[in-house]
């Protein structure tokens, strides 16, 4: 008779600090491991690396299913090779209609995204699932429960939470932000639901455990228009020229290692690199002859060209570029040596920009202002067309089929960037 035991493998720790719980199958003195949709955190494990009851209660249900499958196999089991047994267990334990745990599937999907380097996007999905758990008030949600009524309740909850935050922000005299989460979170859930259908449904063989499409009738609210965050040239110059914070009691003027100074430098770098965002500054690895090649994290998974772009480092930012260059050659910049991940790096930069904004009287200064400002100056001051600005910002084109025939030439981007940087750094207000 086959035996089963739930466990985690210490050396198989995930990037997010969790372990996939596995079922050890022992049969005819051979051992195999089956993955489960369950993930254990450090709090779920004892000092001796045993699983706590909150996890074993879940794995016991899986083991019960495996034992029932073995019982159905009868006398065949004794002579069955372990590989064949594993196949029987995997096929026999596939979720029946309606019994797929949406939260478990979502967790698996998010972990896979993180392993693929999509940490920023994965964080958005985590927030969406966390919000949905606030609604249902439990850690299990069968996919059959996701219907128009649940989605409506979820949307209403998000609206109510936003209204409550708005009241607090208004009392504190803070700007009322847009409600991007409403469309974003619902869009995340729709994508996860479609991915679950793609994984579990097999139309060719008539196996369709998820036959319904709740999002076919539920209308996701349109995302609010992006707030214009561009700054006039004089404000960008003010950021460039704002004095660093220096160490106190030092014999020479040595800049402090602080968020204020970091934010100033990273903002200037981003502006000089066509509004390059923090995730790409943190992760980019390719540098050839003063040209950075990277694949934009935000959109690379949705584009056939992987959102590739090549940016030439302009003379005005070379000194700053060299100051943050990764001397090991592992990445272009050394920000990964300074911060744990791109999210903490982004948070540090934005906190520093709030300090800078306070000094320069720039209300709610954000990092994305560098990208918005570059685009605005390129069009309004340098005579660039909307298509040229879009190409420089690495936006997807409406002419995707045509683009498939054309080898991209990035030199026009460099020429436009020269004009934009000259406009700001050189004081030339109009370069049309």
CATH architecture label name of the largest domain = Orthogonal Bundle
Q: Which spans of ≥5 residues are poorly predicted at pLDDT below 50?
A: none
DSSP summary: helix tally: 17
Helix coverage percent of residues? 40-55%
Structural class: mainly alpha
Within the CATH hierarchy, at the fold level, what is the topology of the largest domain?
hpI Integrase, Chain A
Written account of the structure:
The chain has 432 residues and is mainly α. The chain folds into three domains: 3-92, no CATH class; 102-216, no CATH class; 233-425, hpI Integrase, Chain A, CATH 1.10.443. It has 17 helices and six strands. The chain has helices at 53-73, 76-79, 82-92, 102-115, 119-136, 148-171, 180-200, 233-241, 259-272, 278-283, 318-323, 335-338, 342-360, 369-380, 386-392, 400-403, 411-425; strands at residues 3-7, 19-27, 30-40, 286-288, 291-295, 308-312. The strands form two sheets. It has a three-stranded antiparallel beta sheet with strand order 1-2-3. A three-stranded antiparallel beta sheet has the order 4-5-6, with no helix packed on it. Helix 5 (119-136) packs across helix 7 (180-200), helix 9 crosses helix 13 and helix 9 (259-272) runs parallel beside helix 14 (369-380). The radius of gyration is 27 Å and the shape is elongated. The mean pLDDT is 86.
